[in-house]
Every structure is written in C-alpha cells, then in structure tokens.
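Limitations

Structures in this collection are predictions, not experimental determinations, and the ligand pose is part of the prediction. Treat each record accordingly. The example that follows, with iron/sulfur cluster as the small molecule, is included so readers can see exactly what is and is not provided: the inputs are given verbatim, and the output is the predicted complex.
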Amino acid sequence: MDKREKILEIIRRLQKRYPNVKTALNFTSPLDLLIATILSAQTTDVNVNKVTEKLFRKYKTASDYANAAEGELESDIRSINYYKNKAKYIKNLAKELIDRFNGEVPKRIDELITLPGVGRKTANIVLWNAYGINEGIAVDTHVKRISKLLGLTENTDPEKIERDLMEITPREYWGEISHLLIMLGREICKAKNPQHSKCPLNDICPGSKL
Ligand code: SF4
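Predicted complex:
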C-alpha cells in the first residue's frame, strides 16, 4: 500500500468510528470560532467551552471585543491560562478585523494568518469548521504525533508535516482528516499510553510495533 492508498484507508476506517467529526469547540459564528480557537491554545476544549458559553452572549461582533473596557475582556476570560496575553491578541485581532476586513473573518488563509495570534493551525480549523473550506490541514499535537507513528511523515515541523499530508490526501478530506486524527489521539492513540490493541489502524500502523 503506498501512502496515498494508506491515507484513504485510514480515512475510511476513522470515518466509520467517528462519523460527522468536527471541532469540539462550541460556536455559532466564524468570529466565535476564531476566538475559541485562540483561547484553546495550551488548554482543553472543555475549559474553553465553559468560558465561551457566557463570553459569546456578551461579545457578538468584532467591535464588542475591540471596544471592551481596559481589563474587561481579561476578566471575562480569566479562568483560561495565559488570559492576559490572549485578551491582548483578541483585542488587537478585533481591531484588525474592523480596519481591514469590515469586521468579518476572512475566508482566505493568506489573509487569516496575517491576524495577531493566528497561525496556519487556527486558520485551517476556522476555514473548515466555519466555512467548509479546505485550504490546508490543521496540525496540532495529536496530528503531529500520529502522522509520524502511522509512517505518513518523517518531519517534526508542523508546516512540513502539513505539506506532507496535503501531498497524499485528496483535498476534499483536508479539514476532516485533522479532526479524525485528533479524535483518535484523544480516545486511543494517547501520547503516554497508546492502546494499539483497541485501534482500528493497528494492522497498517508501524507505530503499533514500537
Ligand atoms: S496502532 Fe497504536 S500507534 Fe498506531 S495509531 Fe493506533 S494507537 Fe497509535
């Protein structure tokens, strides 16, 4: 099986196990998802969802974030780690959205990654989950680890891993593959104790023998 055949087999098996996969972050608008994804750095989606339940009722537009009083946004997200930095990023990002994109979240990755606090991972998550656009593959810690174990990449740099995965994965699956691997990483292929015997990819994964 070459890598292109293998990734299709991986997708087929994981789709069966995780049908209708999507981000675990709660959101109703592209702006909500952009903010939630920024908040989710170095913390869990569960923690973020707890905070955003109230936050998204209070802040509905980029102007709401940009015009928040000094310290107010910090206080509204203070149960999240690095809340001071994250509040600063979000306020600056909101100002840029207003100045450059009419307050809307852009639909192009080259525009999204010019915003403060937004890298390719965040941009890819927002584009696929909020707009259904496949521009790239979000490489988080699970995708990075599992791609290597599955023998799909030798690289360790997320951008290089993304390029390797994009080369072998049909574009229509770019958004989905990332979330399928994240689900597998959370449930079975855990960093500390991967459960090879329970894994649907066991027979095609070189990592199962490590
Ligand atoms: S077989 Fe093991 S190493 Fe490979 S993906 Fe499954 S849990 Fe991870």
